[in-house]
C-alpha cells in the first residue's frame, strides 16, 4: 500500500529502529513510547485492521504473537510480565491502519485499560 506508513517502513522508505525480523514479521521501537519497552510488531503483508483478517492470515497472526514472546524474552520481560495490545478502529485508538501488536513492558499496567 503506497500510502501506508508501516508499508513504507517495510520498504525502507522511512527509517525505524528495527529490533527483530523474519520472513513474516518486522518489529521496531515505537516513536512515541508509552513504557520503557514499547515495540510494534507488524506483518510484512498489509492487512488494515482486525476486521480484515481472513482465514488465510491465521498463521501470520500467530507469528506476530511468537515474535512478541521472543522479543519479550530479549527485553527481559518474560517473568516480570508485559502487555500485548492490538487496537481495532479509530474508536479504540488505532491510528495506523496496518495491523500491529504493541508490546509494552518495564512498568506496571492498570486494568481495565484506559
Ligand atoms: P495505533 O495508534 O495505530 O494502535 O498505534 C500506532 C503507533 O505507531 C503509535 O503508538 C505511534 O506512536 C506509532 N508511530 C506512528 N508513526 C510512527 C513512525 O513513524 N515510526 C515509529 N517507529 N512509530 C510510529
Ligand atoms: Zn501497510
Please tell me about this protein's structure.
It is a single chain. With 114 residues, the protein is an alpha+beta fold. It has one domain (5-105): 2-Layer Sandwich (HIT family, subunit A). 20% of the residues lie in helices and 22% in strands. It has two helices and five strands; from the N terminus they run H-E-E-E-H-E-E. It has helices at residues 5-10, 58-74, and strands at residues 18-21, 25-29, 37-43, 82-85, 101-105. Strands 1-2-3-5-4 form a five-stranded antiparallel beta sheet, with helices on one face. A hairpin with a 7-residue loop joins strand 2 and strand 3 (37-43). The longest helix has 17 residues, at 58-74. The N and C termini lie far apart (31 Å). The mean pLDDT is 97. The structure holds guanosine-5'-monophosphate and zinc ion. Zinc ion (ZN) binds next to helix 1.
Outline the fold blueprint.
Blueprint: H1 5-10, E1 18-21, E2 25-29, E3 37-43, H2 58-74, E4 82-85, E5 101-105
Antiparallel strand pairs: 1-2, 2-3, 3-5, 4-5
Bound molecules: guanosine-5'-monophosphate (5GP) and zinc ion.
Guanosine-5'-monophosphate binds at residues 5, 14, 16, 28, 30-32, 40, 87, 93-96.
CATH superfamily: HIT-like
- Unreliable stretches covering 5 or more consecutive residues: none
Give a short account of the largest sheet.
5 strands, antiparallel
Helix-strand pattern, N to C?
HEEEHEE
Annotated CATH topology? HIT family, subunit A
Alpha carbon gap, first and last residue? 31 Å
Radius of gyration: 14 Å
- Total beta-strand segments: 5
CATH class membership = Alpha Beta
Mean pLDDT: 97
Strands side by side in the biggest sheet: 1-2-3-5-4
Count of DSSP-assigned helices: 2
- The helix content, as a percent range, equals 10-25%
Amino acid at each position: 500500500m503506497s500510502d501506508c506508513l508501516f508499508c513504507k517502513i517495510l520498504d525502507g522508505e522511512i527509517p525505524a529502529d528495527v529490533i527483530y525480523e523474519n520472513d513474516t514479521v518486522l518489529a521496531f521501537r515505537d516513536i512515541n513510547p508509552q513504557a520503557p519497552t514499547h515495540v510494534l510488531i507488524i506483518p510484512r503483508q498489509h492487512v488494515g485492521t482486525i476486521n480484515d483478517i481472513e482465514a488465510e492470515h491465521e498463521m501470520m497472526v500467530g507469528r506476530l504473537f511468537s515474535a512478541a514472546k521472543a522479543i519479550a524474552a530479549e527485553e527481559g520481560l518474560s517473568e516480570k510480565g508485559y502487555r500485548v495490545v492490538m487496537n481495532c478502529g479509530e474508536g479504540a485508538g488505532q491510528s495506523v491502519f496496518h495491523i500491529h501488536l504493541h508490546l509494552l513492558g518495564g512498568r506496571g499496567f492498570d486494568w481495565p485499560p484506559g
